[in-house]
Amino acid sequence: MLPFDPIDEAARQWALRWDGVPQMHAVTSLMRVQQLVLARLDAILKPHGLTFARYEALVLLTFSSRGSLPLGKMGERLQVHPTSITSIIDRLERAGLVERRRHPDDGRAVLAEITPAGRALVEKATADLVAADFGLGTLDKDSLQELSELLRPVRSAAGDF
């Protein structure tokens, strides 16, 4: 553990050379927190044989009305490259958590369909994530809501919704 905040120090150094200190400080803080939280979530999910990316794919399938979605639509909703969604589904399929199916209406499309084992694993993994406050246990409910609201305009401006 450092005796100083490295992002504060980076901001101090940045200010000697460039403008945009508040933006640099905020984005660097955001990216560091993302790394820390993702590492924590992956550690929670590892005993289940999942990464957070694979967990998100299973949850997305769980939320779908039929338990299946085209791979292309999954990539769009999870905002990952087509090769990444293919890799995620490959791993989940090898683990018996999803199955690939031909789309009944579009012969070119492939569906990923969650299996009963995938549904059961989502329940167990979700219970562990909820118990760990999704890695954000240092924030109270009001702070979590404030954080979400602070980030909403950035997401909106980027076309997230």
| General form | elongated
Q: What kind of sheet is the major sheet?
A: 3 strands, antiparallel
Q: Kindly identify the CATH topology.
A: Arc Repressor Mutant, subunit A
Q: Report the structural category.
A: mainly alpha
CATH homologous superfamily title: Winged helix-like DNA-binding domain superfamily/Winged helix DNA-binding domain
Question: Number of domains in the coordinates?
Answer: 1
Name the helix and strand elements from N-terminus to C-terminus, one letter apiece.
HHHEHHEEHH
Task: Give the key terms.
three-stranded antiparallel sheet, 161 residues, mainly alpha, 63% helix, 7 helices, Arc Repressor Mutant, subunit A
Write the layout of secondary structure elements.
Layout: H1 6-15, H2 21-45, H3 52-63, E1 68-70, H4 71-78, H5 82-94, E2 98-102, E3 110-114, H6 116-131, H7 141-157
Antiparallel strand pairs: 1-3, 2-3
Q: What does this 3D model show about the protein?
A:
The structure is a single chain. The protein is mostly helical and 161 residues long. The protein has one domain: Winged helix-like DNA-binding domain superfamily/Winged helix DNA-binding domain (Arc Repressor Mutant, subunit A). 63% of the residues lie in helices and 8% in strands. The protein is built from seven helices and three strands; from the N terminus they run H-H-H-E-H-H-E-E-H-H. It has helices at residues 6-15, 21-45, 52-63, 71-78, 82-94, 116-131, 141-157; strands spanning 68-70, 98-102, 110-114. A three-stranded antiparallel beta sheet has the order 1-3-2. A hairpin with a 7-residue loop joins strand 2 (98-102) and strand 3. The protein is elongated. It starts with 5 loop residues before the first helix and ends with a helix.
